[in-house]
Amino acid sequence: MSNRFADREDENPDAKADSTAGQETSADASSGTKDDDGVAGEIERLQGQISEKDREIAELKDKYLRALAESDNVRKRVRQQSEESIRLQRENLLRELLPLIDNLERAVGAAKGGGNGHSIVEGVELVLRGAVDFLKAQGVVPLNVVGEPFDPSRHEAVDHVDSHEHPANTVVDEFHRGYLIGERMLRPARVSVARSRHGKESGNGDVDDGGKAGGDGDSES
Predict the structure, then answer these.
(1) How far apart are CA 215 and CA 211, in angstroms?
(2) Which one, 13, 191, 196, 220, has the greatest CB density within 10 A?
(3) Cα–Cα distance for residue pair 173/151, rounded to 1 Å
């Protein structure tokens, strides 16, 4: 009987081929299903990563905006504190000047009242002493420059004079006093300087300027 079935299969090769093809198709379908499942799983994994990155980006953006707002608040507080400090310093400075105004008003009142000149001079001297004390309290120191060698960093020469008492390029007189505040120059002294023996007046009769005063001193040295 087995021989009979074998003879039938040999007699029908197409049926055998169809059976084999069906098995291969079934295997391919199964393999395709597994590939689709793998692709879907990979897509789901990538979507999860994207969602996680979006969450991290949102958190970082929130932190950045908070830091930006805090920085802006700090900047505003610093500016307000600076403005308040400047306002208080200005008020204190002006408050300390008020006694000088009081003394000047008293001196003017004494002059209008027909007082003698001595009382007026005393009033002005009182104002002057108050002003000097006020400057000292602020760290301002007056310069005493007469008799010093000319120094462009401390003196502003506005005149050259002939002097037999002072060496050339020496400060002879001052037109207004110079002042230091700490180690810095608040205002240079405007001075006249002894002329070099070889110094000459300019053609229009005006004396040399401060820069020439420094140059004369260099030539002498």
Answers:
(1) 6
(2) 191
(3) 14
191: how many CB neighbours lie within 10 A of its CB?
28
Q: Report strand pairing: 189-194 vs 171-176.
A: antiparallel
The pLDDT, as a whole number, for residue 197 is 60
With a cut of 80, say whether residue 3 has pLDDT above it.
no
Strand ranges (DSSP E) for the chain? 140-142, 155-161, 171-176, 179-181, 184-187, 189-194
Compute the C-alpha angle 127/133/138, nearest 5°: 130
Encode burial over 32-65: b for 16+ CB neighbours within 10 A, e otherwise.
eeeeeeeeeeeeeeeeeeeeeeeeeeeeeeeeee
172-186 pLDDT, tens digit per residue, is 999 989 999 988 999
- pLDDT above 70 for 8: no
Of 74-78, 112-116, 203-207, the one with minimum mean pLDDT is: 203-207
**Are 172 and 200 in contact, with CB atoms under 8 Å apart?**
no
Tallying the residues shown for the chain, one arrives at: 221
Would you tell me the crossing angle of helices 13-112 and 117-137 to the nearest 10 degrees? Answer: 160
